Amino acid sequence: MLSFAATVLLDGVSYGMVLFLISVGLTITMGLMRVVNLAHGSFAMIGGYIAGYFTQRGYNFYVALAVAAIIPGILGGLCEVTVYRPLYRKGELSQVLLTIGLVFVATAAVTEIFGAFPYPVKFPEYLTRPIDIGFRTYPGYRVFLIVVGAIIAAILWWVIDNSIYGARLRAAVDNARMARAVGMNVNLLFTGTFVVGCALAGLGGAIGAGILTPEPSYSLKYVVLFLIVVIVGGEGSFKGSFVAAMALGIIDTMGKYFIAPAAPYLLYVAVFLLLLWRPQGLLPPKSAT
């Protein structure tokens, strides 16, 4: 019984890590920079397709992951400079309409290039085998997700909460005019942050392809899920996104194990109850409390 409970928990945590890796970029761009980027899932989709393309042609898996992060990051930076920046002061409606348009463009592009069917990533053989974790064997791929997710979460926590870069980013978001007055290059800071957020989405889409398989409808299919992680965690809260992703991953996994027919509804019921309990999110920024 304990072994089964641990398995359910690990499955939920590994799924939560995928949600976190993809959604944390949205936490940065939407929560901190206050850009309603509904196209965020498109960068994750692109990362998944790139990883699938390279791994299916025999390239090293980790090289494929690096390219899957770099290209969405570059695309995100270009979009920030050319498309998003003019909309910063236009209001949320303009941002929503534009980013929804980008979703349809990305969907059409990957359909034209890769076809209309799911495009799997080929993982190394050692990740497809079960490994011994002490009390039982467990899929190596899910252990990989948990370890990589934990490492990236620790790095991001230090950068956002404890580095000069994180302090400058928060200052620029709170008062861009004052930040410029003291010598900060706010435009460069925002572009760099957008690059990082989109690169993380691409990386999450690539390593999470074993759970969320790349397909043309990826962006539209999962955008609500990524938004839920950001809102339930607390808009702009890195720690909140991590906790929300873990909680939602575990809840969704438990639903699939125990009440499979109702599992899709269970997640949204849980979100409804969580937001009734904590309207500002589980761990909102200090300014929101």
Instruction: Return residue spans where pLDDT drops below 50 for at least 5 consecutive residues.
Output: none
* Radius of gyration, whole Å: 19 Å
From the spread of the alpha carbons, the general shape counts as globular
SSE succession: HHHHHEEHHHHHHH
Beta-strand segment tally? 2
Main sheet attributes: strand count, strand direction, barrel closure? 2 strands, antiparallel
Order of strands across the widest beta sheet?
1-2
At the first level of CATH, the class is: Mainly Alpha
- Oligomer state of the chains in this structure: single chain
Please state the second-level CATH architecture: Orthogonal Bundle
Provide a brief overview of the structure.
By secondary structure, this protein is an all-alpha fold. The chain has helices at residues 2-32, 40-56, 61-84, 92-114, 125-128, 140-162, 164-174, 176-181, 186-207, 218-233, 238-258, 263-277; strands at residues 130-132, 137-139.
Features:
mainly alpha; single chain; 2% strand; ABC transporter involved in vitamin B12 uptake, BtuC; 289 residues; two-stranded antiparallel sheet
Structure description:
This protein has 289 residues and is an all-alpha fold. The chain has one domain: ABC transporter involved in vitamin B12 uptake, BtuC. The chain is 74% helix and 2% strand. It is built from 12 helices and 2 strands. It has helices spanning 2-32, 40-56, 61-84, 92-114, 125-128, 140-162, 164-174, 176-181, 186-207, 218-233, 238-258, 263-277; strands spanning 130-132, 137-139. It has a two-stranded antiparallel sheet with strand order 1-2. Strand 1 and strand 2 form a beta hairpin. The longest helix is centred in the first third of the chain and has 31 residues, at 2-32. The chain is globular. The relative contact order is 0.20. The model has no long low-confidence stretch (mean pLDDT 89).
